[in-house]
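Quick one: Hypoxanthine phosphoribosyltransferase from Bacteroides graminisolvens DSM 19988 = JCM 15093, structure tokens please.
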Amino acid sequence: MEWNKNRTFAPLLLIQPVMDTIQIKDKQFSISIKEEDILKEVKRVADEINRDLKDKNPLFLSVLNGSFMFTADLMKHIAIPCEVSFVKLASYQGVSSTGTIKEVIGINEDIAGRTIVIVEDIVDTGLTMQRLIETLGTRHPKEILIASLLVKPEKLKVKLDINYVAMEIPNDFIVGYGLDYDGYGRNYPDIYTVVEE
Ligand code: IMP
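--- reply ---
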């Protein structure tokens, strides 16, 4: 093979640069949870689910967009018979005193009599989760369980039984590992917290 000086080679040892701070639009974020720590907790949650639901043939319902990375990493460690599907919450202006309400789209499976595990990125006020549980409840599942990557306990406004939680975090805005700021930042493998000026 002839030497081509324009050709690029994969480095022998890939050392991933960890960026301590990132800028997204008008905001700066600094690293707060490293990928390896996230993955450890995700694996722990998967182990708990494997133990608890082994005879229940669960249907995992992943809530897009934010939970795509969590879902992928979680499912790699789920070792029991199960199905995975994806739903989305679409905002629309409804005739409601609260203004914007959310519609659940993409439930194509018959969930009657099934054990459902909602896979969510983050529970903040809990209103999104409450809405989802209400909607799913009308289709008569056997039970609805929640697996959330993150919970901000100080911000919870509604009573929710969150069965599986990878990590609890303070009341700060975060991005990365699927979570976004104005559509950006979902691609980072680590989690970053906003730097308040
Ligand atoms: P809730 O209805 O207040 O619980 O909000 C849940 C949704 O808000 C999540 O599914 C996220 O999409 C979004 N969210 C809440 N907190 C954050 C955050 O810190 N960063 C990015 N998105 C967030």
